[in-house]
Each structure stands twice: as structure tokens, then as C-alpha cells.
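wait is this the right file?? whatever heres the structure
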């Protein structure tokens, strides 16, 4: 006979419970040791206009087009101006300012200024670099403002420096007793002429921003500057259109620059005042700049 069977003891799944307990402990430990958001020990300043200006300055001085255009400007203004000084005498300056020789080179030198203004922005559209620029600095108005500031400063410095070299050369070589009396007003007029040519370059930059095409924008600027004297002269040949032709001959870029330098208009015998010419170019340039902000801000790149 067999004895009574002892009751079966309940079995516990210690392995499962141990594994679960270990997993919970590991999960808790890993959660507690997870890194939080990274905080840089270095101060990160918010982007502002100064950063955009520094970026545009670097881009402008690092491309060959800037060297070629500004070099052409200096060569034309200084070269033609010094040549004009060498071909004059002291008595030739009795009725004209000593800065007049710089005018001859500046009438041609305004073309490189306008070309540089167009290339300052249109070259980025042509190469696709504008996408990188606007990705790094999404504020388009800030980028465009920086371009205007950098270009205007560089262009004005180059123009004024070239005119000053010619004016000083004329004063030193031809400013004797036979040249008559000359004062600081001549230099103020020359400075106004430099501002006018700089504004032409700013106008070219605005046209380039709106057209986004280098050749097209340069063609537009050349037409705006070179065609009015030709068109005005043609219209003056007909009696009915002569008044319109006279107005065009009085208000165009070459005549304005001559008037700002203190020389009369050879076609009409006089020229509008400096304030009128500067106000006119300011209005035209301001309208173009406002249009460039509107177009660049709304249009896809």
C-alpha cells in the first residue's frame, strides 16, 4: 500500500518576476540619466542689421567684378582728369571751378558705378547664391538694406576719392594767380555731384533687384542715362515738341552732373539748381528702392 500523497506546493515564476523587476529598475535609471536640452555656454546673439552688413561687405569685396568696376571708375576719373589738367592753363580756370577736370572722367565713370550696382544683386540671382543668402538670413528687407548701405558707402568713397585726387592736382598745378579766386563752394558742388552719381548706382541696384537679370538691368540704366540727351535734341528740332525737348535736355543725368559741378548747360544756357537736381534723383531712386523692397519681399527666388 502506498502512503498518503503530500499536497503539491504552489510554484512561483521567480524568473519572470525578477526579470520584470530588473527591467523596471533599468528603465527608471535610464530615464533619470537621459540628457536634457543642450544649452551652449557661449552667448548666442540675435541676428541684426550689422551682421547682414558684415556679410554683404565680405561678398562685395571678395568678387572680381568689384575690383574691375571700381578700378575702371578710378582709372577713368583720375586718368581723364589728370590728362585734362595737363592740357589746361591757370587762366582757363578764371570762370570754371578747379574741380571741373574731374567732371570729364566722371561722365564716363558713372557707367562702371551703375554696372557694379546691378551686379551687387543680379549676380546672386544668376548663380543661385541668393537662395543661400536668404536661407542664412530669411529677413529679406534686412538683406536688401544691407546691400544698399554697403554699396552706397563703397561707391561714394571711390567716387569722392577719385574726384578729390583730380581736384587737388588741378589746384596744385593750375591754382596760381592767373586762375582767379576759388573757394570751398566748388568742393561742395563736387561733393553733390559725387552724391548724384552714387544715387545712380543705388538706382541701378534697385533695378537689378526688380529685374533679376544683369544684362537687362544694365541696358535699362544705360537707356535712362544716355538716351534723354539724344531724345531731347531730336524733339527740339520740331516746333511743337520743342518745349518737351527743352525740359528733357534740362533734366537728365549728364546735364545734372555738369550743373552740380558748377558748369552751365551748353544747350539751354543754364541749368536747374543743385537742390532741384538732387531732389529729382532722390525721388526717382526712392521710388525704385521702394519697388525693390516690395518685389523682393513677395517674389520667390
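ok assuming it is, sequence goes like this
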Amino acid at each position: 500500500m502506498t502512503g498518503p500523497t503530500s499536497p503539491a506546493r504552489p510554484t512561483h515564476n521567480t524568473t519572470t518576476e525578477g526579470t520584470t523587476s530588473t527591467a523596471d529598475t533599468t528603465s527608471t535609471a535610464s530615464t533619470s540619466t537621459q540628457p536634457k536640452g543642450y544649452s551652449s555656454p557661449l552667448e548666442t546673439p540675435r541676428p541684426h542689421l550689422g551682421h547682414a552688413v558684415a556679410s554683404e561687405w565680405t561678398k562685395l569685396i571678395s568678387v572680381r567684378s568689384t575690383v574691375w568696376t571700381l578700378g575702371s571708375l578710378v582709372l577713368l576719373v583720375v586718368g581723364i582728369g589728370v590728362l585734362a589738367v595737363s592740357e589746361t592753363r591757370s587762366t582757363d580756370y578764371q570762370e570754371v571751378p578747379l574741380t571741373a577736370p574731374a567732371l570729364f572722367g566722371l561722365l564716363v565713370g558713372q557707367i562702371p558705378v551703375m554696372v557694379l550696382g546691378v551686379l551687387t544683386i543680379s549676380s546672386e540671382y544668376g548663380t543661385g547664391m541668393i537662395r543661400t543668402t536668404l536661407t542664412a538670413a530669411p529677413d529679406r528687407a534686412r538683406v536688401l538694406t544691407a546691400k544698399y548701405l554697403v554699396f552706397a558707402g563703397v561707391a561714394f568713397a571711390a567716387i569722392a576719392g577719385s574726384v578729390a585726387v583730380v581736384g587737388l592736382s588741378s589746384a596744385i598745378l593750375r591754382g596760381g594767380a592767373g586762375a582767379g579766386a576759388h573757394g570751398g563752394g566748388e568742393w561742395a558742388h563736387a561733393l553733390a555731384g559725387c552724391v548724384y552719381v552714387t544715387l545712380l548706382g543705388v538706382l541701378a541696384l534697385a533695378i537689378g533687384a526688380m529685374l533679376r537679370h544683369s544684362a537687362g538691368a544694365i541696358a535699362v540704366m544705360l537707356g535712362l542715362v544716355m538716351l534723354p540727351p539724344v531724345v531731347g535734341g531730336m524733339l527740339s528740332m520740331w516746333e511743337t515738341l520743342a518745349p518737351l525737348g527743352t525740359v528733357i535736355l534740362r533734366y537728365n543725368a549728364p546735364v545734372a552732373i555738369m550743373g552740380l559741378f558748377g558748369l552751365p548747360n551748353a544747350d539751354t544756357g543754364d541749368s536747374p539748381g543743385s537742390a532741384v537736381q538732387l531732389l529729382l534723383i532722390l525721388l526717382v531712386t526712392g521710388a525704385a528702392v521702394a519697388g525693390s523692397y516690395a518685389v523682393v519681399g513677395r517674389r520667390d527666388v
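Residues 49-298 form one domain. so i think its the right one actually
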